Amino acid sequence: MILRSPLPGKILRLCFRSGEEVKKGDVLCILESMKMQISISAPTGGVLQWKVDEGAVVMREEIITAVNPR
């Protein structure tokens, strides 16, 4: 499953590394947008694969990660 940024902003923190397994509902990263911090959660469980780095500036709808079900 592909996850896209809901808003333009900056990736403040990645909570997991690529290749790690996550569960549905785990907070994957923190996005800062308009001085707000937004938690991006896993919609499903699986193996995480980041498409951006910590500190990256992303646009709305930009792909930030993929969660591949096991």
In terms of topology, how is this protein built?
Blueprint: E1 2-4, E2 9-14, E3 21-22, E4 27-33, E5 36-41, E6 46-50, E7 57-58, E8 63-68
Antiparallel strand pairs: 1-8, 2-4, 2-7, 3-6, 4-5, 6-8
Pfam families: Biotin_lipoyl
Domain Lipoyl-binding: 3-65
Keywords: Biotin
Overview of this structure, please?
This is Acetyl-CoA carboxylase biotin carboxyl carrier protein subunit. InterPro entries: Biotin_Carboxyl_Carrier/Decarb, Biotin_lipoyl, Single_hybrid_motif. It holds the Pfam family Biotin_lipoyl. The chain has no helices and eight strands. It is an all-beta fold. It has a single domain, classed as OB fold (Dihydrolipoamide Acetyltransferase, E2P), CATH 2.40.50. The chain has a four-stranded antiparallel sheet with strand order 1-8-6-3, with no helix packed on it. A four-stranded antiparallel sheet has the order 5-4-2-7, with no helix packed on it. The chain is globular, with a radius of gyration of 11 Å. The chain starts with a strand and ends with a strand. The relative contact order is 0.38.
